[in-house]
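Q: Hi! Curious about what Tetraspanin looks like structurally. Here's the sequence.
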Amino acid sequence: MAATVVRICLQSVLKAVNSLLGMVGIAMILYGLWMVRVWLRDIDGSPFDHHNVVLPWFTCTSLGAGFTLCMVTCIGHVAAKYAHGCCLSFYMLIIFLVILLELAVAADILLNSEWEKDLPYDPTGKFNDFKDFVESNLDIFQWIGLFIVLAQGLSIILATALRSAGPNQRSSYDGDEECPPERLPLINPNSHPPELHYRCQER
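A: Let's find out. The predicted structure is below.
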């Protein structure tokens, strides 16, 4: 009974933490869609051929990161619901890879003073606007980044604990019954097995 309660609590907390990551992904998708809308509005008034225009890389990156987080959130919810070892292991692997990617990007920004030169040119200027906005609110974004990394780390810890707890186990028969159901013989279904009937009477 206690193991079942602990498993249910772990599943609920993992779903809640996983939902926070999903909200971050949805926010990135909405921001990417807004940039797409602004970009389409800008190219409508341009004299260039619209068929040869490619979506800016910063917009694609925002949409891709948002969809990735939403996909990871869906996988996490499925893994938390069924508490299957393979699903939880796959979920932990994806979260671990995402954390490594985030740490690599953060290390490159902190250690490389000319990291902007490694990025392609953004014709829309949205990347520079986003960078200026982050720099003007650096303290807030530092806390947001720390919160995201901690949530991802907590997801790995919860998934590990849930994997150790094992999958949901269902009893093969009702525990309120004092003896298992009797099996009726094939030839004479009205007769009862004497040994099993006598055993139930003794209980």
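A: A fun detail: The chain has a mean pLDDT of 79.
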